[in-house]
What does this fold into?
Amino acid sequence: MHAEMQTEYPTLNIPILAINMIGTEPGIADVALISTLPIVQDDATLTIWDNWGGIWRDVKILNAQNEVIHTFNLTQHNLAPGNGFCTDSVSMTQSSCEGLGETWFGNYEYLKQLFVDAATQ
Amino acid sequence: MTRVSPSIFLSAALSLSALSIFGCGEEEKPTDSGSVDTDTMEDTSDTTDTNPVDTADTTDTDLVDTGDTSIVDTADTDTADTTDTTDTDPVDTDTGSVGPGPNAVVDFSLPDTNPSSPTVGQTISPRDYLQQVSGWYFIKAT
It folds into this structure.
């Protein structure tokens, strides 16, 4: 997604960074095999997760004043293709959602649009 | 015998009354010689200048120059210096709201630990991303 936004919206320059949970430092080598995102390691002194109120797989979008304006959890909103949510908060598929006249949002597209909208406000 | 006019008699009476008020009883009193002083103590012979204020000089009769009746100089209506239109400051310091907002996240400063990241080893702080939107992903690197 980061690479996509850089290509599609080069002027927005939206960085995405990761904050690794305390105690999972050894796994960074594995993450490095699949991701080039900058990663900072939380520790018992800083307790960034606690201070920011973050939980596993949260994506927090900060505005230009370093304030959280969106939190989008990727466990609740899987970014794999086909996953999304309906405006009726009930329908689990795009077809059933749109069959009821509601609007379907793909998780991936929705998160991407949150970034773009935040950066273009 | 000299006849005393009523006005002179009244003037003398008032003078005696004034002396008693201010306690001047110890002063040497003039001897009553029996004659009446008809001098009214006022020089009425000078009738040339009857005005205590010299009104002869009519050129400038006002102590204050009232020629300019405007309190504020309104001739120069330009309050800004518009002659200097060149920006001599190489850095634009007007960046709007510069600092973190009232609900800004707690700051930190940590190195990038991802060996695959182009910025590995460099210090990262959320304050590096003021004035732009940024995304922060909470991961368990397992």
User: Anything to note?
Assistant: Residues 12 and 120 of chain A are 8 Å apart (CA to CA). Chain A has five helices and six strands. Chain A has one domain: 2-120. The mean pLDDT of chain A is 96.
